[in-house]
Amino acid sequence: MTEEWFRDAFHAEVYGTRVRITPPTEFILSKLFIQDRYRYDGADVAHMILKQHEAIDWQRLLDAMELHWELLLIHLLNFRFIYPTERHCIPLWLFEELLGRLETRAELPVPKIRVCRGRLLSPRDYLVDITEWGFADVVGKGLEESHDRNK
Q1: What DSSP assignment string belongs to 106-126?
Q2: In the prediction, which pLDDT does 150 show?
Q3: C-alpha distance from residue 102 to each of 53, 71, 105, 125, 145 (Å)
């Protein structure tokens, strides 16, 4: 969370009280990494795009997901699968940018170190990749913390 989350705060009335709510761009950012076996927030992302696409700051979303742009692309493709008639909700320039990156990445040589970034999405579901299958855990929570949680 940064100061930007509150700069453009939206307001709503809840039971007669005016409250600040998370703006659509920040709402999506808060949900993209929640892909655990027991909780998946992809439907929240798809619904926000469907209902608030005009209020989403698409460039800011792309900038914030720069290191993890593939994850953004996954959610955008998921939206297109769920709502094939609503593809206009996502700017074409964003798809072109992300698909161009995907094409460029496909042409790069395969790294020599096997990497698993799955623990960014679910520390417990991808623990076996690190502890038994030989993948490097370059992101995510420490092994001890995950082991403690899984006991």
Answers
A1: HTSPPPSS-B--GGGT-TTTT
A2: 45
A3: 23, 11, 5, 25, 33
